Amino acid sequence: MKILGKGIKNGWLIAGLPDAGLVGAIATAHIIRMLNMEAIGHIESDLLPPLIVVHNSKVYDPVRFFGKNDIMVLSSEVPIGSPLVYPLGRAVVEWAAEEGVKGIIAITGIAVSNRLDIEVPEVYGISSSSEVREILEKANIKVFEEGFVVGPTAIMMRECMKRGLPSVMILAQSFLEYPDPGAAAQAVVALNKMLALNVDVKPLLDEAEIIRVRTRELMRRTTEAMRQMKKAHEYEVPLMYT
């Protein structure tokens, strides 16, 4: 696996990959659009599907890095299958450390069974150190206290902890197998508070139905990838220990 591109030294890397409710993927796509970010790199791997992405008659790689000022975004337009989770997570963290990135903020959904009854999804945070925990506290983001997190974001945080690279995970209550722009919007609101980004989420909410239609095939393929990764473990309660 190769990452081609130059990172932004002392900048935050925001990672949003297809997962529960496509929360991370929808949130990062919106951030890229609203901040008018430019592509600064991409990932190459034989483990990725053999495809290219075409936008406005231009050809792109499906997993790309975008950047502007002191912010970078990692976004994927394809599911991250089980064979790709570990090598991708390790490669991203290794690249970020080598490029002098300040830290990684991963956005994902945490599926809840009563999502239909929730008007405004709650957002929780997980931090790898006291340094970044203060960022969550200042932004008034609730701490995720108990449970499992499964998928590429979990691997990234684990690799960050090994390397001493600051990392935060933002989890928004979401549907599991249904695109959830509402949850993505709340994740962006939390990110705004953390990094003072001021990304407007109104267009995201106004276009929610269009987004659901456009992303339903990606959600279908992501659902299969989540099954392979045993995503259902997130519904389990971990053993208590001291």
| Helix segment tally | 8
Fill in the CATH topology.
Rossmann fold
Q: Which structural class do you get from the secondary structure elements?
A: alpha/beta
Task: Report the span from N to C terminus.
Answer: 38 Å
Number of domain modules = 1
The dominant shape is globular
Look at the structure and give the mean pLDDT.
Answer: 91
CATH-assigned homologous superfamily: PAC-like subunit
- Into which percentage range does the β-strand content fall? 15-25%
State the total count of DSSP E strands: 11
Assign the CATH class. Alpha Beta
Q: What is the share of helical residues? A: 25-40%
The parts where pLDDT drops under 50 for at least 5 residues are none
Radius of gyration over alpha carbons? 16 Å
Q: Please trace the helix and strand order, writing H or E for each element.
A: EEHEEEEEHEEHEHEHHHH
> What strand line-up does the widest sheet have?
1-3-6-7-2-8-11-9-10
CATH architecture: 3-Layer(aba) Sandwich
